[in-house]
Design goal:
Histone, subunit A, globular
Length: about 325
Amino acid sequence: MAADPALRCICLTAPTACGKTELALRLAERLPLEIVSMDSAMVYRGLDIGTAKPSAAVRARVPHHLVDIVEPTDAYSAGRFARDALAAIREISARGRLPLLVGGTLLYLRALREGLASLPRADAGLRAELDAEARAFGWSALHERLRRLDPDAAARIAPTDRQRIQRALEVHALTGRPLTELQRRGAGVSGLEMETIALVPEDRAALGQRIERRFDAMVEAGFVQEVQNLRERGDLNPQLPALRAVGYRQIWLHLEGAYDWPEARRRALVATRQLAKRQLTWLRRDVVSEQWPADSPGLAAKFLGRVERFFAGAT
């Protein structure tokens, strides 16, 4: 299906702590924008400070979509994001306003831009077998098996990421095909024309310093108490997808007594830097997005002009 000329969207993405949200809000002061969040943690209610979620006052001034839409007990998938984001883009466009997709969850971007393959449902029996093997031989052994079966998936998945190792091996066992191959067969979202602008930091050391300053500011704003409040609910645990967001799991384990605060802070910063590195690697390999230096002068004016020209082409 050809793209619907009335259905257009610009995506602004970047590694964490590169200022994409601030840039989007500056743009909203000049244009009738509504922001569609592309952040896998902001969808969860109660995860506010550690996700750098825009405040209620900001969201009252600039409408945000796909924020606070599920409980942290729930799972939220890339496929569901693609459906929800497309629906939000349609609604925004129907009101005569401009949809701006903003966030750094790049699996979500791929799901919306390229589609995801139709994968088999979870198999409880097979998962129990994989769990038993992991108890006997360790997840590193299962990761090594995945490396032989699907080296591309193994390169993306950490040897300690039990959930994703299990899913990749499960898909291969059920279909006889590597997960990576099946994902590449996914069909794109029909009817949407989208351009992607990626802000790419040129100074990795400076990005690391921004990550550190932002984390400390979050702690000063009450991040530790936020995690304590989540623990006190009684229905959450650090293995849930919501609590795997960087910072949350490390603080949770600190509150459980697993390690002291300096170690929790160190682990949270390491996890955040590793996330930024993965995002940067993904973006540098992405031949579709247009990449701009994140710290270039006049970035806001340049982006404003680009958005105005892009949406003017729809008329």
